[in-house]
Specification:
The protein is an alpha/beta fold and about 170 residues long. The protein is about 20% helix and about 35% strand. It starts with a strand and ends with a strand.
Length: about 170
């Protein structure tokens, strides 16, 4: 199994503003200007946090973006009503360990989802896009607690206003 993160943050490390909104992201470009389609075609399973789900659930043609994967939303609430996503509660690390080993898993957004995954050194590869925006405050992407992790820079790309780094975990 390979665990991937694909997402975007601001220059100062935020994935959302102080109101948990990502309008700054949509103001700068579109998914068509990135490697999203190529990346997504390699994924089997998607794991998303509730706040991220709340941001995307009203998107037009949601099935075009998430229709080919088995999709899970980690939440303590049970009010998600969609055929595309299944709700999951509990420990995300335990859930990941229960997935079939031959599957590629995409972790979508959320520092509360990412922190335990990073704390357990589970991210194998990151596609990290950086937007030329400084928010000054907001929701930080990286909030893990357990020490240093080292990644190898494999590639860099520019997509419109976004700089993308492709990073691979270095086993220590």
């Amino acid at each position: 199994m390979a665990i991937f993160f694909y997402g975007c943050m601001t220059l100062d490390g935020y994935l959302a503003d102080k109101n948990n909104e990502i309008g700054w992201l949509h103001d700068l470009g579109t998914v068509e200007e990135t490697t999203y389609s190529e990346f997504y075609n390699q994924m089997d399973i998607l794991i998303m946090g509730r706040k991220t789900f709340d941001e995307i659930k009203e998107m037009a043609h949601l099935e075009n973006f998430y229709g080919a994967t088995k999709n899970y939303v980690f939440t303590h609430q049970k009010d998600i009503e969609t055929e595309l996503f299944e709700t999951v509660t509990g420990d995300v690390v335990e859930f990941i360990s229960s997935l079939p080993p031959e599957k590629n898993v995409w972790i979508v957004g959320g520092n509360s989802l990412m922190a335990p995954i990073l704390d357990n050194h589970l991210i194998d590869k990151m596609y990290l896009q950086v937007a030329p925006v400084l928010l000054g405050e907001g929701v930080s992407l990286f909030t893990q607690k357990k020490g240093k992790q080292v990644f190898r820079l494999l590639e860099t790309h520019q997509y419109g206003q976004f700089a993308e780094m492709v990073l691979e975990k270095i086993e220590e």
